[in-house]
Amino acid sequence: MSPRREQGRGREFVEALARGLDVLKAFGPTAIELTVSEAASRTGLARPTARRLLMTLEQLGYVRSVGGAYSLTTKVLEIGTAAIAAQGLWDVARPHLVALVARTHESSSMSQLDGSDIVYTARVPVAKIIALSVSIGTRFPAVATSMGRVLLSELDPEALDGVLEQPSTSGIIPRVVPSRSELEEDLARVRERGWAMSDELLTVGIRSIAAPVRDDRSRIAAAMNVTVYAAETSIGHLTGEYLPALLDTAAAVTREWSNLAMLPISEASAAG
Predict the structure, then answer these.
(1) Residue 84 CB: number of other CB atoms within 10 A?
(2) Of 169-183, 225-239, 253-267, where does mean pLDDT reach its minimum?
């Protein structure tokens, strides 16, 4: 372990675990398969270290090796979906998202903040060809998305600094990257009005609005959006017709999830 990392992370930090997670995160849409050398290059690890980690992950079932190249298996989904399932938020939100999509005829999604990115945790799409492929687990830079700005709006200045210092791992370069002052001004508006909009900030032609979903302590736990084509739906229609439906849906999910959190849980249920 390098002295710098040990000093920064503390004595309880497990270097081997961190390196294994780095190897998993090295895979992505543009790196579906990686050789040992490619994994080493993308993670900054020595080739023998990358090889041992990949072999360990293969034995655990998280990657497979074919012809000298490694790829992720579906078992890696257990890592992320376990946390989502434990929160129970998707089970609560599912019927509400479906109803919102039926009402607007536009795609709706939910996401949570991970570093400087949003990560999609739920989605009900409509049958349209979009400029960016979106599925559960998709990451986008938070600053360029309506859901990201909702999630960033609750952070205090120090926490916001920490988030923005982390590089995006989405692989997406936003069409518009706001200055820090522009971002802070918009986050202040989001806090005041309770919703956010992204008008072709992430990519050309995509416009969206988002609202917060809160937990039983009134903290923002996730964001919910409605996404439209800019050429099909004006800002006036988006905010005049779809925004009230979105706010109603987010409020309904918040109430239901908060009520669920207040229900007594028996020791047997908690253990099971």
Answers:
(1) 18
(2) 253-267
Q: How far apart are CA 167 and CA 187, in angstroms?
A: 20
Provide the residue type at 97 as one letter.
L
Global pTM reads 0.70
Q: Which of 79, 172, 73, 152 is nearest to 111 (CA)?
A: 152
For the ranges 77-81, 191-195, 241-245, which has the lowest average pLDDT?
A: 77-81
DSSP-based three-state secondary structure for 254: helix
- The pLDDT of 45-68, averaged and rounded, is 94
Q: Is the pLDDT of residue 129 over 60?
A: yes
pLDDT for 128 equals 74
Do 73 and 33 meet the contact criterion of CB atoms below 8 Å apart? no
Distance, in Å, from the CA atom of 174 to the CA atom of 162, rounded to the nearest integer, reads 20
For the chain, state the CA radius of gyration: 20
Tokens 């919910």 appear where? 224
What is the rounded distance in angstroms from the CA atom of residue 74 to the CA atom of residue 77? 6
265 versus 238: which is more confidently predicted?
A: 238
Residue 111 phi, psi (nearest 5): -150, 165
Least Cα distance to 211 among 122, 149, 134 occurs for: 149
Q: Which residues contact 68 (CB under 8 A, 6 or more apart)?
A: 35
Share of the chain above pLDDT 90, in %: 68
3-state secondary structure string across 62-79: CEEEECCEEEECHHHHHH
Distance CA 240, CA 215 (A): 27
Residue 101 burial (CB count, 10 A)? 19
Q: What Å distances lie between residue 92 and 114, 197, 220, 243, CA to CA? A: 21, 24, 16, 20
Alpha-carbon distance of 110 to 212, in angstroms, equals 9
Helix, strand, or coil here: 151?
helix
